[in-house]
Amino acid sequence: MKTMRLFPLELRRLLQSRLTWLIMALTVLSPVLGLVLYKRATSTTMLSMYLANPAIAGGVAGAILFGLLAIFELDRASRSRVDILTDAVVSPLTTALTRLLALLTAAVLTMAVTMLVWFPISAGLIGSVFTGANYVLAYLLLMGLALPLGILAAAAAYQFTRRADLSIVLFIAFCALSLTVWSAEWQLCWLNPCVWALSDDFSNLRVFRSVAWMRLTWLAALAGVWTVSYLCIRQYGKGIFGSLARSVRRVYRPVIAVALLACSGTAYAAQPFIDQSNPDLTAMSFYEIPYAEGVTFVRRTAQVFPDTDAGTVTGRASYQFQNTSGQEQSISFGINPGYTISNVQANGADVPFTVSDYQEYNEALLEVTIPAEEEVELTMEYSGFPQESMPTMQGGKELSSEYLCLENSALSPRVMNLIPGEAGYPAEIEITLPASMIAIPFSSSEAEVISENADGTRTYEANSAGGILYAGDYICEQIEAGGMTIEFYYGRKHQAVMEEVGAVDAVKEVVDYCTEHYGTLSFGTGETLKLIQSRVAGGGYAVGGASLLDEADFTIANLGDTNKGAVPGETFIHELVHQWWGLGNMFDTADSISPWSAEGLTVYTTYRIVKELYGEAYAQEHYVDQWQQAVDDYYLNYYVRHPEYLEMLPENEQLAISNSLSQVRQYNEMPLKILKAEQLMGGEEAMDQILHDLFNRELDPMYPYLSYQNFLDACGLTEEDLNLG
């Protein structure tokens, strides 16, 4: 009761301090650091650059500022040498709790002001893809919860040490751990959440859930540590251990501390987001499982029910096998590590199964023993929260009413050790989704609505051997181009951007041009091709009948990249050309000092398309002349002429400069080299024939990449022939 009576007085005293208002003002301004200095999210989506980065930077700066304020306030009485008098009037335990509540309240007020100030700024910077829900969740989780963590950590350090200087050192060291050693450990980086991207066009619930889990885990841990330090507050002239012995007489105090620490430890160990897959990406033990003798795969069916509110999946899978071995056999399945398997039956009878603790490539090994009968129908149920393998790239398993991607064993358990039957590995998948979502199998097959359900959902059926299914709030445009029907799926939130850049016309122009000059995409069916915009994932890929376009390639910021095109519509053309140079033909990891990459041929092809659309003068002015200017500036660059001085710079500065120089080599120097090769080869028709032959060459399965040497050999040239000096 005394604490609640003293709290308004302590809060008023705190808010009358000039230092408090300075700390609050600096915290309100701190998100600007995310725009210019500390950019934790590396993606180019608008929400990553103008929401995630400011919120994370604000959380880092705000937590440090409020932590220092906490130490200053707790040391006030000792610094003024009136602590003996104040402790005689009010229990130091009551004082500590009152000051903590006042500091936390000041942090809440600061956060409210910050959100009000930055709301119009964020809305203006982000543009049409801005939503209030993303804004509120980002600032509350990425910034708001960092402030009480900083206060608790700093206050605990002071209550243990009773020295301001030592407390500051301990607190800053704890912050530095999060920013350096723990920065890639998503559960340990308490200060700077491990968020690499936020999606503009689809939901971000998965990322926000993982950040909330991490924040609440640390909140329980630091609250527990603070409670232990609270028990160690010096009283009655005793030292730390004497004070502790006296404070624990009230049993509820140590019980609260232990409960908080136990909850934190349990939350840390039981996190549902990231699996325990073998970090060795060369491991292939699952591929070494011997085939089951005499057992043939016949077909698979699955009924899948995603819970788009909880982000979980439940399902029932059925498999038909032929067992000609005359004996029991062990069948191996890959399952997502977040799933629980139950009710496993063969021909209606329960059969034994085991799930191994070992995980590889986001799968755990499920082994089921089937009976010696010749015809076997195996059924099982599975449910859970699909886990991911890459803690620094979270978001791929997003599952909401706006977007989901269920791949392979996350869709239904995947058979590992059976030879296919006459029909291969046929699969029939039924999935029930909210009516606002479109189901898109990542293959040449189509999903058909088989029922409209009373609860506002639809059930889709897809027949496909493929194991990847996308669904979301998509718009589908049907485009006739290159002798095919292109089904172009993009997020509804991105509609205004797509219309502004003339996306439909660009798709038609690119597909027509590249098909005519280089050939049909190898992953097209010849009749249809799905182009699917995915949630930001760090890249695209393709299979027969479908190709993925990463949303990060089509953000406002990326469409304004003049390296890829003079105007946004031309940048859109650039990204589509990557279907031929980058996906249709793969490129090995680019050498940092070599200009050769997928970008060179893509920029050159974009130039050729623009030249055909808008004329030679336009292409010369907006492409060739700009390439030449950039290359001229490149060769005048101090660090290009004196690379030995680049090596003397700090590593982060070296990386920034090297990346900038590499971009010039790939986006400007290489297109000029290809243009020079075109001139040496006799013109555009000759170069088109060379690129056509390279695109359609027979691939070496051991090295399927298109190399610079392949290009030079096809042209009959050497590297020296293409020097621009």
The biggest beta sheet reads: 9 strands, mixed
**Helix-strand category:** alpha+beta
How many E strands?
21
Q: Which word captures the global form? A: globular
Q: pLDDT under 50 segments (min length 5)? A: none
Helix fraction?
A: 40-55%
How far apart are the first and last residues' alpha carbons, in Å?
82 Å
Radius of gyration: 30 Å
Offer a quick outline of the entry.
This protein is an alpha+beta fold and 725 residues long.
Task: Describe the structure in your own words.
The structure is a single chain. By secondary structure, this protein is of the alpha+beta class. It is built from 24 helices and 21 strands. Strands 1, 2, 4, 5, 8, 11, 12, 14 and 15 form a 9-stranded mixed β-sheet that branches. Strands 17-18-19-21-20 form a 5-stranded mixed β-sheet, covered by helices on one side. Strands 6-7-3-10 form a 4-stranded antiparallel β-sheet, with no helix packed on it. A hairpin with a 2-residue loop joins strand 20 and strand 21. Helix 2 (18-29) runs antiparallel to helix 4 (46-74) and helix 18 packs antiparallel against helix 19. The radius of gyration is 30 Å and the shape is globular.
Features:
single chain, 725 residues, alpha+beta, five-stranded mixed beta sheet, 24 helices, 21 strands
Task: List the SSEs and their pairings.
Elements: H1 2-15, H2 18-29, H3 33-36, H4 46-74, H5 76-80, H6 83-89, H7 92-126, H8 132-144, H9 146-161, H10 164-179, H11 205-231, H12 240-247, H13 252-269, E1 295-307, E2 312-323, E3 329-335, E4 339-346, E5 349-350, E6 353-360, E7 363-370, E8 375-384, E9 403-407, E10 414-415, E11 419-420, E12 427-434, E13 438-441, E14 447-452, E15 457-463, E16 468-472, E17 474-481, E18 484-491, H14 495-500, H15 503-517, E19 528-534, E20 542-543, E21 546-550, H16 556-559, H17 568-577, H18 598-614, H19 616-636, H20 638-641, H21 643-646, H22 651-681, H23 684-695, H24 708-715
Parallel strand pairs: 1-11, 1-12, 18-19, 19-21
Antiparallel strand pairs: 1-2, 2-8, 3-7, 3-10, 4-5, 4-8, 6-7, 9-16, 12-15, 13-16, 14-15, 17-18, 20-21
Helix pairs in contact: 1-7, 2-4, 2-7, 4-7, 4-8, 4-9, 4-10, 7-8, 7-9, 8-11, 9-10, 9-11, 11-13, 15-17, 17-18, 18-19, 18-22, 19-22, 23-24
